[in-house]
Amino acid sequence: MNMFKTILPWIVLVLALVYSGQKLIMPERVESQYNLNEFRQLPVSAHGRTKPIDTVARNSLMNISGRQSIRTDDGQVTAIEWYINLVTDPEGSEDLQVFRIDHPDVLSLLGLDREKRTRFSFGEMRPKFDEINRQAMKAGQLTAKQRDPFQRAVLVLNQRLMLYSSLTQLNNPYLVAPMTTSDTWRSLIDALGEDPADADARLVLGMYQAYQAEDVAGFNTQLATLTEAVAQALPYDSKKAGYEVAFNQSKPFISAAVIFVFAFLFGCFGLLTNQMKDKTWATTLLRTMTALLVVAFLIQTIGIASRVYLQGRPPITNLYSSAVFIGWFSVLIGLIIDRKNNSGLGGMMASVIGFGSLIIAHNLGSSGDTMEMMQAVLDSNFWLATHVVVVTIGYSATFFAGFLGIAYVTLGVFTPRLDRERGKSLIKMTYGVICFATVTSFVGTVLGGIWADQSWGRFWGWDAKENGAALIVLWNLLILHARWGGMIRDRGLVVLAIFGNIITAWSWFGTNMLGVGLHSYGFTNSAVFWIAIFVVSQLVFMGLGLLPIIIWRSKFERLSPAEGS
Amino acid sequence: MMIKKVLKPVASLKLTVIIFALSIFLIFAGTLAQVHAGIWTVVDQYFRSLVVTIDLQIFMPKDVATIPGAIWFPGGLTLGTAMLINLIAAHTVRFKFTKKRFGIILTHLGVILLLVGEFVTGFAAKEGNLTIREGETVNFVENIRATELAIIDQSAPEDDLIVVVPDRFLEHDKTITHGLIPFEIEVVEWMTNSQIFGPNQAPQDRRGIADTGSASQLVAMPLPEASGVDGSGVDAPSAYITISSNGQRIGTYLLSVYLEQPQAVVLEDRTYWIDLRFARTYKPYSMKLIDFKHDLFTGTQMARNYSSQVQLVDEDRNVDREVLIYMNHPLRHAGETFYQASFLQDDAGTVLQVVKNPGWLIPYVSCVLVTLGMLIHFGMRMAPKPKRKVS
């Protein structure tokens, strides 16, 4: 038995590594006579970035249908198969049910019924194209703020139809690499329009035509020739494209999210068994949790590092990557805290934040390429690497303090397990994390001011995002000064720390919801809904924290009225 | 001792916490207020004021519920000053220069500087725009938050005579007269923010009332003040004015910052030019735009970079050189900083933002002090304590 307890963490560690590493080492292959495994690594250019055609296929399908593969009567179809079939045979693909439409009024406009499905085909919508176009024009004349949910939904559908047509018309992505006849990327249509005999364009066209003619051997040889030519002209991009396909395949953040769930469960069991006489079980389970967190952290690190390499940018470039980063850094904080004291609560909260942030990231990333190019004003690797990273660390730390507060309240109110020792150590952790959050959020905010001064001459402009950052700093300062002045004790500290979650959520998302910028971040009404739910839940935790101690199931505090801060 | 007694309540940590709480509320309200009001209006009302009246409506979208009423609240100037006094008082009362407090003192010194820096910026900083078309030379800066009515008399051979009327007179006064101009100006309609329509583009219920001048075919329509969360946030005023001389009506004109050419007022033998334009400040230097570049990412409409190649001439300082100004790479000259801010339609010219802020360096120093201070303070606590010998 003891032997088992010793090796359990190791076994789980190895299992988790195998689970998440297998896809990276042995990428899924597309089963086809056509060499689609090589085809998908072909570099193309879309939205200003050179990427493998696999990424374009995945992001387009994700944008249109909310999935990276589709189910048909013949089984699962991967994004790359969907793409090549679509562009080589648009008519034959017309009946695939790929367009996700949720809004009931849009469906009734299309004369479609939402019986048992939420996805519809291009063919089904064909009779209503003019009407969709007309509605989209009307909605397009309004500002984003003025549009109602129906108008927003129509615009989304219209944008999806346009994306779909740009693929079938070979306008997007740019397929013809700068090889022998040109020094810029061009779309196949443009290149052939300029010169029907353009050698580079012919190479691409020939390959697509072979696929169209179901000429397996022809497709494979032409593909090989093209791959060779592109690799010669763009060796670095080709190498990166290959790596990106492996990255797409391995889905590191999904693996990490799954591991977080298990880590949390092991943590719960560890906490439950803590009351048993035999403490070794608790130790084993918590060690297992830590092992899982280490693996998840490793995978997230690889994932983030891969994005940095592929994008040639510091880790945070948009909301999606900030969510990933917040999760990653929270795990780091949790692991450090658990090393300092073995309560396991740091790890448990890390798995909660880690999982939550990846869910948020997943939803933010569903509308397209998460490695999009940056607006010119943000184009500064130095400030992205300093201001953005530091301020995001501040967000993570403030969240972490808030979640430790939640752990304190939950354990105290609902279980008898918050004894004096554990309570004290939780408070110490929370306090320490708040101090750290104060430093990082302050430094991050001021660095942002300096960037603003450098790029448009105004250190502080009182705009929504700056104000949001200032609120976090002020809130952390308020907690610290209240504590130093003896105005709050332990419970006051945790209740205020939980409110920090609301403030951080506001700064992170709320400020984006104020303005017209909603759609640019892929915001929908459902995001507003979820944020409202989050805020209410935090208020509930705060309310629980304020319940008289007599109702708490953990009675430790009553035993020592003199103690507190 | 006496001073300390007086200062003690002012120096309390309770007051600090209260100020923080009030500031948090003020900033939150000042962010929400930007949904409907312009960012500069909000900055003046909320953050650079002693007292602010906060409409309760800002906390609730209008289409959900209407909330009447407003509350009085201390403005940013009051809270900033209070914070400053509280901080200085605290250090006066409890001043002890020990190793343990060194980090705190350093941090607070930095915070004081940061507050002072914002005061300096609030009172002394000036911002303007320098708009240049390609090939053109410009020697004035425009303040896009203020407009002026310029009346130009070019009849003298040497110099032009220009009379300038600031926008606050246009907004509030109905008739404007001046000893140097032989006619009266009556403001028929003033629009703080507006849009201009072509002859047949205006909505049917809106008719232009101009009957004279080159813009009489156009129609101006008022718009709500540009809000802080909208894209540009710049108000574009227009006005309908009627000009009469000696009781005789000459005509009603449309003036707008959108119009590039001034309107001609013909008075017997003389022609006067009138123009509504962003308020100008003439400078001892001039800039000529040699080339404006607007680079896009391949196959997109997304900007990769904006850059302006300009010839900077300043005879007072013996400067005559070419400069490239682009994103995140401003030019600093004569106490002013020039940033690539925007551009004209069809990339025909550039808009540089010109900022003069004598306090621009303060936040940098403050940032270093606070960071250092906090690292020392918290670092000392985190560091392992030296083991004591058991006696």
Characterization of this structure:
- Chain A is mainly α and 565 residues long.
- Chain A has three domains: 1-30 and 251-373, no CATH class; 31-234, no CATH class; 388-565, no CATH class.
- Chain A is built from 22 helices and six strands.
- Chain A has helices spanning 2-25, 36-39, 53-65, 79-88, 104-109, 122-125, 129-140, 149-168, 188-194, 199-212, 216-233, 235-250, 252-273, 280-311, 319-340, 345-364, 381-414, 420-456, 464-484, 490-514, 525-546, 556-559; strands spanning 43-46, 49-52, 69-72, 75-78, 97-100, 119-121.
- Chain A has a two-stranded antiparallel ribbon with strand order 1-2.
- In chain A, helix 17 crosses helix 20.
- Chain A is globular and about 80 Å long.
- Chain A starts with a helix and ends in a 6-residue tail after the last helix.
- Mean pLDDT of chain A is 87; it is low at 516-523 and 559-565.
- Chain B has 391 residues and is of the alpha+beta class.
- Chain B folds into three domains: 2-125 and 362-382, no CATH class; 126-135 and 282-356, no CATH class; 146-279, no CATH class.
- Chain B is built from seven helices and 18 strands.
- In chain B, strands 4, 5, 12, 13, 14 and 15 form a six-stranded antiparallel β-sheet that branches. Chain B has a four-stranded antiparallel β-sheet with strand order 3-18-17-16, with no helix packed on it.
- In chain B, strand 12 and strand 13 (270-296) form a beta hairpin.
- In chain B, helix 1 crosses helix 4 (76-93) and helix 5 (102-124) runs antiparallel to helix 7.
- Chain B is globular.
- In chain B, 30% of the residues are buried.
- The model of chain B has no long low-confidence stretch (mean pLDDT 86).
- At the A-B interface, helix 18, helix 19 and helix 20 of A face helix 2, helix 3, helix 5, strand 14 and strand 17 of B.
